[in-house]
Model the fold of this input.
Amino acid sequence: MWSELKGLYKISRPLTTLTGGLAVLLGGYVAGTGAWDKVLLAVFATWFISAAANAWNDYQDVEADKINQPKRPLPSALVSPRSALIFSVLMTAVAIILAAFINVTAFVVALASATLLYL
Done:
């Protein structure tokens, strides 16, 4: 179980998700918003949708990664394809829910992004 959790952590590509979240945080700072609660929700929503996208990408590319990136969590069987898919969908749902707490526009953007992600 712990090895699969470690694999899901790796599949989320934490450095990539961190940079996305930091970009949102910096954007909130530069914009001079006083609504830091909303900015933090946006940071977390960004982290979750980025993790979802990375997991979905690995899920879709598992056959190519068996040749090109065999040490990644899916090709190395650290994570099952089913777990990667569930993780991706769960992270997407969390991101959309968080965006809904920001405002309607953020919710619509998150929903549209998620829809495009899975097309």
